[in-house]
Amino acid sequence: MKFYSVPIEHREHIGGYTLFSYRWEGPVEPGQFAMARFGRFPYTLDPLLARPLSFYDQDGEATSLLFEVRGRGTALLDQADKIEVTAPLGRGFDVNGIDGPCALLGGGIGVAPLKILGRRLEALGVPYDTFLGFADAGTAEISRDFPGARVATMDGSAGVRGTVLDAAPPLEEYAAVYACGPNPMLAAVKRAADGFCQLSVEERMGCGNGSCNACVVPVEGRGYVRSCVEGPVFEAATLAW
Ligand SMILES: Cc1cc2nc3c(=O)[nH]c(=O)nc-3n(C[C@H](O)[C@H](O)[C@H](O)COP(=O)(O)OP(=O)(O)OC[C@H]3O[C@@H](n4cnc5c(N)ncnc54)[C@H](O)[C@@H]3O)c2cc1C
Ligand code: FES
Predict the structure, then answer these.
(1) 188 in a structural domain
(2) What CATH number is given to the structural domain containing 71?
(3) 129 and 188: one domain?
(4) Per-residue three-class SS string for 107-167
């Protein structure tokens, strides 16, 4: 897989998350991701594996990623002036032929692909509502970048108390439902939505290009498939959970 070395042009810390952008000319589909690593290769192979991050936004040639520091890979990215990234990977959200209002639901750092998805829906003239769920008011700060979004926090310190589904009306009202977040949240969204529903799963990934089988998810009638090449976005009905 080819990695491109790109300087970080803008960096901002918003609540518990880091938002940074770099120059990328190529098209990016909402829901696609990049494999990203600290830009010191070939002087060091630490960390050996790049980390998958969803595209947050693309405005002209400024492409941005939003991430939470969880371990060594993201901590190094957080300090980097230059990173190495792949071209957009995976299958993103299908927005073709949607003719009614959509619901966008994000849980925690799972809000990341919803910004670029909203931008695409706006370009298509498709109305949408955004619902964001967080642990607390600190992590909920990113919601200021989603004008009009309804917010829920588990501790009630911002928005309504509860999960993202507590901030949303019945999902049957929407022509399409798009969601990204932890698996228990996605399973709850799947149960609550009875129409067109697409979920972006976050499995641990090794390669991001289909060669290591680290990222498999169970699908109805087909055993397991690799979420880096067949996903990360799946029709909710195809996921066997
Ligand atoms: C398609 C896809 C898109 C993603 N998009 C984003 C994004 O936009 N922003 C973002 O912050 N994160 C995103 N993630 C999760 C991100 O890849 C992990 O948080 C990151 O790899 C952790 O690396 P690390 O070296 O910092 O932590 P590690 O030391 O590898 O792990 C630290 C902690 O993070 C947990 N973790 C590691 N990988 C994942 C994962 N894939 N999903 C959930 N928990 C994980 C581990 O269980 C551990 O508890 C995405 C994952 C996938 C598969
Ligand atoms: S991450 Fe290696 S096959 Fe998906």
Answers:
(1) yes
(2) 2.40.30.10
(3) yes
(4) EHHHHHHHHHHHHHHHHHCCCEEEEEEECCCCHHHHHHHCCCCEEEECCCCCCEECCHHHH
Three-class secondary structure of residue 130 per DSSP: strand
pTM of the model: 0.95
User: Is residue 178 in a domain?
Assistant: yes
d(CA 72, CA 221): 37
18, 64, 74: residue to mutate for ligand 1 pocket, most atoms within 8 A of CB: 74
Q: Which ligand is nearest to the CA of 51?
A: 1
Are 231 and 200 spatial neighbours (Cβ–Cβ below 8 Å)?
Answer: yes
Q: What burial class does residue 4 get, using C-beta atoms within 10 Å of its C-beta: 0-12 exposed, 13-18 middle, 19+ buried?
A: middle
Judge whether 228 lies within some domain: no
Domain end position, chosen among 24, 54, 85: 85
- pLDDT tens string 43-100: 666 778 899 999 999 998 899 999 999 999 999 999 999 999 999 999 999 999 998 8
Residue 83, strand partner residues: 6, 38
Q: How far is the CA of 71 from the centre of ligand 1 (A)?
A: 8
* Of 110, 129, 131, residue with least CA distance to 31: 110
Residue 45: give the domain boundaries: 4-85
